[in-house]
Specification:
This protein is mainly beta. The protein has one helix at 266-269, and strands spanning 17-22, 26-31, 36-40, 58-64, 69-74, 79-83, 89-93, 101-107, 110-115, 120-125, 138-144, 151-156, 162-167, 173-177, 182-187, 194-200, 205-210, 214-219, 225-230, 236-241, 250-255, 259-265, 273-280. It has a domain at 193-285: Thrombin, subunit H, CATH 2.40.10. InterPro entries: WD40/YVTN_repeat-like_dom_sf (IPR015943), WD40_PAC1 (IPR020472), WD40_repeat_CS (IPR019775), WD40_repeat_dom_sf (IPR036322), WD40_rpt (IPR001680).
Length: 285
């Protein structure tokens, strides 16, 4: 399937799409044209007019259903928060970082933003009204320093208490306590630089889409590389667990080799990974 629908070509971005995420009902895209577009999966058309406000390329984007919010970051260091149900701007965190925002992650009421300025910033949602409802505004809780290069990716545990981030120059994976802002563990010297991470909390592991053309799986307790999954012919730009994330039986990856691969884990979810399907853009319908 292509977006926009061929019957509505004017709905498309006017420049390169630089970020992408989804919810059960929507696909959300960010672009070099400084806009965000929310697409209905059902109609394959825009759910709302383009979301405007960024003054740089929208490099990072995240969305969730509860609360119904979109988080976006751009090349000017700005972070914006949008209402997923209306497409309206909720809050603009101008100059949140001194350089490009490379990743955003939201879990457990906590927003983490990673930047080329070598920092991760942690933002807390609040305050809470008399009925116990948190307003959809965010304020800075911690600035996490210690990475020796651009922080390429960050992810947050479901309870909002921990974050895992990786930087490029030192190939360092750090686990942070978001309550104190302190480093809990730091591991260095990995074979590839991770440009995107996903936590597998039930197994205390992290998936890493890497520049060495592989998907690496690391143990969060020891920092050891458990397995390297190979098959792509270029940088792996994204990786996601298929399903609820509780068990790593299937995953999907996207690469600069112009393919998307669907992987399955053998032996009931405990064996080696193998490619189930390789998709190219030529196969889109």
């Amino acid at each position: 399937t292509y977006l926009p629908d061929p019957e509505h070509p004017s709905e498309g971005h006017t420049s390169t799409i630089s970020s992408l995420t989804s919810t059960p009902s929507f696909i959300i895209s960010g672009s070099k044209d400084h806009s965000i577009r929310i697409w209905s999966k059902q109609t394959r058309c825009l759910a709302y007019p383009p979301l405007l406000g960024h003054v740089g390329t929208v490099v990072a984007i995240e969305a969730c259903d509860t609360p119904a919010l979109i988080f976006s970051g751009d090349t000017n260091g700005n972070v914006m928060i949008w209402d997923l149900t209306t497409g309206t701007l909720v809050q603009s965190l101008e100059n949140a970082h001194a350089d490009t925002v490379l990743d955003v992650a939201f879990k457990g009421g906590v927003l983490a933003t990673a930047s080329r300025d070598q920092s991760v910033k942690v933002w807390e949602r609040g305050p809470v009204d008399h009925a116990g409802n948190a307003f959809n505004t965010f304020r800075l809780r911690h600035t996490l320093l210690g990475h020796q290069g651009a922080v390429l990716s960050v992810c947050v545990t479901h309870d909002g208490k921990r974050a895992v981030a990786m930087s490029g120059a030192d190939r360092a994976l750090k686990i942070w306590d978001l309550g104190t802002g302190k480093v809990l563990k730091s591991f260095e010297g990995f074979a590839g630089v991770a440009v995107k991470l996903q936590l597998i909390e039930a197994e205390r592991k992290v998936l890493a889409a890497c520049t060495n053309h592989a998907i690496m799986i690391y143990d969060l307790d020891s920092g050891e590389e458990e397995v390297g999954v190979h098959g792509h012919g270029n940088v792996v730009r994204a990786v996601r667990i298929v399903g609820n994330g509780e068990e790593t039986k299937m995953m999907v990856s996207a690469s600069y080799d112009s393919t998307v691969r669907l992987w399955k884990r053998g032996n009931g979810g405990h064996g080696a990974w193998s490619t189930v399907r390789t998709l190219s853009f030529r196969e889109a319908v």
